[in-house]
Write a structure and sequence with these properties.
The chain has helices spanning 8-30, 50-57, 77-80, 83-97, 110-123, 146-150, 196-215, 222-235, and strands at residues 127-128, 133-137, 164-169, 171-173, 176-177, 180-186, 240-242, 245-246, 279-291, 297-309, 314-316, 325-327. By secondary structure, the protein is an alpha+beta fold.
Length: 330
């Protein structure tokens, strides 16, 4: 529930849903049920309120369901069997959008591609759990802040040769969610590949993925895992930002936060939860690098791929991006 949202249809749905939800809550309270208001990341605003104090002082139930804390974290084997196919489907949709079938340099805008992704997802009978976003970085333009790159409302820009594109897309199929970020490069006339400096930046992001996945340890907190990985990456000369999370029945699934995109030194309460085996993760991060071909401009290489942790090692469900999607395909 939001008090306001940039998506008009979401606001309309809330207007219809809130009165019905309130009626259910009132009925539950009348029968002695304690309703706990638990917003995910804005609890500070409610500290000291009577409702919050009632929730904090509520006694624990005498009989809690076995392993209730693990519900929605671990994916049953029969569902894991189809998860790689769902990840592959999401990757295929992204790849199609980052191609000459959709993008005509100098004509197509980032908003055009976003709307193409929405239409393609609908045509396939799938459900997006958030609206796909498309953004770009280019030589000569001002380097965008992380806040601008992650903004829900981004400026519409015409895609040009030489642009570095970024897509963030998540679908839900058979009740399982994906959360994927890939990058593409729009070839200039005469080019057959991206400049070496951009490819080196993507390699940095891949190297950061390797470090994070190597460090996964059952029983370790998300904060510890993120901080340990960042320390190693910095020692190797990388410029890392790690902010991964669990995924599964929800796009941001039950489990620890492994860093925050907007504050790499913070350890929020969800980051104190422990990493569990047999869980699915969005390996989300970025590496920054100065690109010589772009006049030394600082460029952010942002990736997010779905992976499975079996308790010993982490494996991607459908590989990972190691080469940019090229527009057009050479």
């Amino acid at each position: 529930m939001w008090d306001l949202h940039h998506c008009k249809n979401a606001v309309v749905r809330e207007g219809e849903m809130a009165p019905r939800l309130n009626a259910v809550l009132e009925k539950a309270r009348s029968q002695g049920v304690l309703i706990i208001h638990a917003p995910s990341s804005c609890m500070a605003a409610y500290e000291g309120t009577p409702a919050r104090q009632r929730a904090l002082s509520a006694p624990a139930a005498a009989h809690l369901p076995e392993k209730m804390g693990e519900w929605c974290k671990q994916i049953p084997s029969e569902e894991m069997a189809v998860y790689p196919t769902i990840a592959r489907l999401a990757n295929a949709i992204i790849a199609e959008g980052l191609s000459e079938r959709v993008i005509t340099p100098g004509v197509t805008t980032t908003a055009d591609v976003q709307w193409w992704y929405r239409q393609r997802i609908a045509q396939l009978g799938l459900v997006p759990w958030f609206h796909p976003t498309v953004a770009l970085q280019r030589a000569g333009a001002e380097t965008k802040s992380a806040t601008a790159m992650f903004a829900s409302r981004r400026a519409e820009e015409v895609i040009r040769p030489g642009d570095l594109l970024h897509v963030d897309l998540g679908i839900v199929y058979l009740g399982l969610a994906t959360d994927t970020q890939n990058m593409g490069y729009v070839l200039r006339p005469g080019e057959t590949d991206a400049p070496a400096g951009l490819k080196a930046g993507l390699a940095d992001a891949n190297r950061l993925q390797d470090l994070l996945m190597k460090n996964y340890t059952a029983g370790e907190s998300g904060c510890s895992l993120q901080q340990r990985t960042r320390k190693e990456a910095l020692a190797l000369g990388l410029r890392p930002n790690v902010y991964s999370h669990a995924v599964g029945y929800h796009g941001h699934g039950a489990g620890p936060w492994i860093g925050m995109w907007d504050d790499q030194d913070a350890c929020p309460p969800p980051g104190e939860y422990e990493v569990q085996p047999n869980t699915v993760w969005a390996i989300e991060l970025n590496a920054e690098r100065a690109v010589p071909e772009w006049g030394g401009k600082n460029v952010r290489f942002m990736l997010e791929e779905i992976a499975f942790f079996d308790g010993k090692k982490v494996d991607f469900l459908d590989g990972r991006l190691t080469r940019f999607h090229l527009v057009p395909r050479p």
